[in-house]
Design brief:
- This protein is an alpha+beta fold.
- The chain is built from nine helices and seven strands; from the N terminus they run ααββαααβββββαααα.
- The protein has helices at about 10-15, 30-35, 70, 80-85, 95-110, 200-210, 215-220, 225-240, 245-255, and strands at about 50-55, 60-65, 120-125, 135-145, 150-160, 170-175, 180-185.
- A seven-stranded antiparallel sheet has the order 2-1-5-4-3-6-7, with helices on both faces.
- It is globular, with a radius of gyration of 19 Å.
């Protein structure tokens, strides 16, 4: 085990601490937080997943969903932030820290009214209870904050080993509500707004395709015709320069489109 003063956890605490401007107490009920934000769990689940609530002010995981057992083999009560970070593959730890630093710096610059308008995602390999490594897509959405501090974030982890077995971790910032996105950001790269390859409607349909929904289901959910959905699907595949939904899923992960 790494010595505490040089561990990834200690370095991460310094990075996350940038989101805390004062030490004002925060006592909002966690149960209310969970119930209110469960609707956000549909952001992306192309595989087995679990979710967590990270308390930024305490630098600790307040809640870990029981789904973690299926993905990593651990029970929720076996997990805390220090333990979790130390299971990350040694080669991926520098990427994790760099990406979390970019995330925190980006959050610090956002005005209050835009602090809930982004999600952040990157990937890394992590050791399971059976000592195998899988690759997780790590998605973060700030859910409780004010003008001074960020207090809690929703973290969704999806097993994407079947989609991305190899390659270096990548990082993307995805804007909601017409906010700009920054895709596939390099470790030492400054943020450059990404060109929007897809229209707003195409992004909605892309998400549905990646979730494995057929055209009829997509049409019913979006209240559009089946013919419209099929036309959008063709355009999406053409723009993405792929031929199958599986190829589209793989490229969407690698390019950070979702």
């Amino acid at each position: 085990m790494e010595k505490p003063k040089t561990s990834l956890y200690q370095a991460a605490v310094e990075v996350w601490g940038k989101a805390i401007l004062n030490d004002s107490p925060y006592t909002k009920n966690l149960e209310l937080t969970l119930e209110f934000h469960k609707k956000l769990l549909n952001i992306f689940q192309a595989g087995n997943y679990y979710y967590m609530i990270f308390n930024i002010s305490q630098m600790e995981l307040e809640f870990v969903s029981p789904h973690i057992t299926k993905v990593l083999g651990y029970e929720p009560n076996e997990i805390n932030a220090f333990f979790f970070l130390n299971q990350i593959h040694p080669d991926d730890k520098p990427y994790f820290l760099s990406f979390e630093n970019k995330l925190t710096e980006f959050l610090k610059e956002l005005p209050l009214e835009k602090r809930g308008s982004y999600k952040f995602q990157h990937d890394y390999r992590i050791k399971t209870k059976t000592n195998n490594y899988i690759r997780l897509l790590h998605q973060i959405i700030p859910i409780e904050f004010d003008k001074n501090n960020y207090y809690r974030s929703l973290v969704l982890h999806t097993d994407i080993t079947h989609i991305k077995k190899d390659g270096i971790p990548c990082f993307s910032i995805i804007g909601f509500d017409d906010e700009p996105s920054y895709h596939n950001i390099e470790v030492n790269e400054r943020l450059i707004r990404s060109f929007d390859l897809f229209t707003k409607r195409e992004k909605e349909i892309l998400k549905c395709i990646i979730e494995g929904k057929n055209s009829k289901t997509i049409a019913d959910e979006l209240f559009i015709s089946l013919n419209t959905v099929n036309n959008h699907r063709k355009n999406i595949l053409k723009k993405a320069e792929v031929h199958t939904p599986l190829d589209l899923l793989s490229k969407s992960i690698k390019e950070g489109w979702i």
